Amino acid sequence: MKYIRLLFYILFISKTIVTWGGENIGGLSFRAYEYSKDERTSFIIPSGNQRVRFKDYLSVSFDLKIREKDEHFGYVCRMIVDNRNSLNLILVNPVNEKPYLCLIKDQQYLGKIHSSAPIDIHEWNRIKIELEYKNDTLYVRNNGSLISKEKVAAPDNHSVKVCFGANKLASYTTSDVAPIILKDVQIGLEPGSIKYEWSLEQAVSDTLLQDKFRQMTAFISNPEWIINSHIYWKHRKTLSFSSKTFPVPCEDQSACYFIAKDRIVKYDLIRSTTKEYVFSPLIDVNRITNQFLFVPLKDKGSQLVYYDFEKPDGENLSFFNFQTKSWSIPIQRKRQSSYTQHNRFFNSKDSSIVQILGYGFHLYTRELNRISLSGEVIKGELPDVITPRYLSAIGKTDSLVYIYGGLGNDLGKQEYGVVHYKDLYKLNLNDYSLEKKWAIPENLCDEVAASTLIVDEIEKGEHAKGLFFSSGRFLSSLVLKDLNLENGQETVLGDTIPYTFLDVNSHADLIYLASEKCYYAVTVHQVEGNNYEANIYSIASPVLPIQNITVQESKGTWWKLLFICICVAGLGGIGWRLKNSRKHDKKEAISISQQDICEKEEGVVSDINSEKEIQENDHLYSSFEAPVLNTTPGIYMLNGFQVINRDLKDITGKFTPIMRQLLSVIILYSNQNNKGISNIKLKELLWYDKSEESFSNNRSVNIRKIRLLLEEVGDTEISSANGYWYFLNKGHVYNDYTIANQLMQKMAPLDVVHKEDLEKLLSLASFGQLLPNMQFDWVDSFKADYSDSMIDLLSRLRDSKQFVGNDNLRIQISNCILRFDSLDEESVRVKCRALVDLKRMGMAYTAFDQFTKEYKLILNEDFKYSFEQFISEV
Questions:
Q1: Nearest CA to 347 among 307, 387, 392, 320?
Q2: Residues 764, 719: contact at Cβ < 8 Å?
Q3: Residue 675, exposed/middle/buried by CB under 10 A (0-12, 13-18, 19+)?
Q4: 134-169 pLDDT, tens per residue?
Q5: What does the alpha-carbon distance between residue 423 and residue 400 come to, in Å, rounded to a whole number?
């Protein structure tokens, strides 16, 4: 039954096109003029020096969309025929004309792509280019309709290379890349048939991409996968402030404003630009909370207002004038606010600003205060159906406000403890009546939602999106969730965003721009002293769950896949039966991924777990030579930093000291936590004395240089996600530190080890310390952890009954330990005893003499035992 489930799971996830809500989401977005020339996207069919060969017919078809807000110029597709003619589909943008697509053959302009029906280049169009050499004709079709027919001269022998975007092919090089989104690329060699196909729906990390039928390989570089924009948050901007700062979204302007003590910074969410408005007098931001809101004013659009229910009547509202850069009433307070981390909104039903809940002076509140734009104040409380609390989230529709969760207690006094609520209430905006919808009891987690819920109007208010985080952690993270407003069911969407939470000194908010089909997350937190930092992130809608994406299998390969899966399941069943038919028990060998062990080290793993087997296989543990040269492409970190390329050339000299540190720290943190190192930590370790802008520039330049050098080594990648940088080894690129760690984790719990594993471990241990030539504080903990783990495991192996009587092997293990700790007395003793047993007295005395000299040199005292006393000690 287990194999059947596995079979159907494989069928479900393999060879798929991601779909969501009936909508296909995917495609390849090309990096164009917004990137440097080296970072622009290429998609070339086929890869390398191959050509697609054809006789009398060729068709190239693809789905194409032009991004609206980028430079409308560049190559869409370049078809190089027989390496001497080119047919080019180009996006052009003449003055005083709308952008359009045109065809150019070599230097001859063939004409504009047009049809009787208007072509919207910013929507999906199915382009098909056909060459018929029998009648020397070129056809261009859009969405099935013939839109162009041209006569072209036909050469004798036919081969083609199809290039989308940038390419560096001789005589046809171009970096002029049109801002296109591409998918469903098909090549046909006969009318009505498809020979090669690339859907480009799913993200891949390889530079070589096989077609659907596994008959041709394409080359891809610098891809921007559309699917990733629906799964991973993209960091857009970091803003720094010298005071406490409050974020204030303004969806009408597609912006988020940040109010600091002496200025307002407007961040344009779409253009990612900022504009400052410096004002005076200063605001004592440490005595207020986020009491700012944009409200609609007749004939004035949205207006920024500060509200304060603790002020005397007539001073409750202060409007900001962006022309004069001043507040209508100076914002001053004599004490801190009583309503930190409260919720607020504008009620268009009665044109009032509404403030609910909050915390101050160790009290949780359930106040409901209102103020009209004319200044009329009404103070009150929410019905006692809801308990006093703060850190709640609200989602607003035209007539309702949903209030979700928060922290507080029944009495509203902090000394009575805090309860984490997971409940939902409906506040009627017509009469302010409150209805409890549901509550999830016995909530043991400390998760709360950021202040804003985006109610999904498509689903008639039944669902909402919100950012959730752990309020009990300082280094927390935000995750977007879909919240079912009917029953409280939650679905995690996308990946996480780092979030530093320090209660009233941190803020997080969620913004949705329907015009962009995009969510934006805004975080603000205190960094050092009175300095604050704001970060803005974005993710495309609909946001997809990472772990639970609905998929649809590709056509044409389903039965092949089924056959393969049945064979795999059948072989697995046979293996299971053979394993269980053995007459004696054996411990199952734990395999190491082929991806992590280089090809030259592949072999069959043997089991040895009885004294008889140990004796019979004693020859397996005979002496072997540790490698003295690195003869495998890879990144070496044991006994010093070294990089070997595919041609087995040492390219270490191409890495500057800072590049060596940067690559090493990313690899080390990736091994430690499987997540990598955050931008914050990276700046702290390597560029602590740099400004944010300088750090960003230094990091980008050095990572780009490292990536170029790693291309010479093999299939590796330094990637960034959620503000973290991590190292991904996608091929057979050797990294001795990673393999050593995996071997130690595998062998540590075992009573009996395998020959191949022991050989690999001793080979790696013989190189000694991790990065001995790197003397920096940040690397010391990694060095210590690696040395301690290696010494502990080797010491256990040295003393294991499995190797009793195998003097050569025990000498090798002891030598490896001494590479890490030259004063390890037990290892010296075991080594000397083994040498004596092997009748190598001179070597035994030499080893002891070397040890005593080093003992004197390091500890500044004589070793107290003679050779005879030392080896006889128990």
A1: 307
A2: no
A3: middle
A4: 777 888 888 888 877 877 765 556 788 999 999 888
A5: 16
φ, ψ for residue 148, nearest 5 deg:
-160, 140
| pLDDT value at residue 594 | 29
Q: Which is nearest to 136 in space by CA: 160, 159, 149, 153?
A: 153
Longest dimension (CA), the chain: 103
Residue 268 CB coordination number (10 Å): 14
Question: How many whole angstroms separate alpha carbon 820 and alpha carbon 791?
Answer: 7
Q: Residue 629: how many CA atoms within 13 Å on its side-chain side?
A: 4
Distance of CA 39 to the CA centre of its chain: 19
Q: ω before 542 within 30° of 0 (cis)? A: yes
Q: Which residues pair with 345 in a beta bridge?
A: 354
Q: Which residues of the chain have pLDDT under 70?
A: 1-24, 114-118, 153-157, 442-445, 457-461, 547-631, 731-732, 874
C-alpha span between 595 and 89 (Å, rounded): 40
DSSP state of 862: -
Q: What's the order of all strands across the beta sheet hosting 634-636?
A: 642-644, 634-636, 734-735
Within 10 A of 860 (CB to CB), how many other CB atoms are there? 7
Reported as a single tens digit per residue, the pLDDT across 104-121 is 887 777 777 766 566 788
Phi, psi of 525 (to 5 degrees): -150, 160
User: What pLDDT was estimated at residue 24?
Assistant: 66
Q: Residues, the chain, total?
A: 874
CA gap 811, 820 in Å, rounded? 15
Q: What is the pLDDT of residues 749-807, one digit of tens each?
A: 887 888 888 888 998 888 888 998 888 888 888 999 999 999 999 998 888 888 888 88
Helix segments in 223-276, DSSP class H = 226-229
Q: Strands 301-307 and 52-53: what pairing?
A: unpaired
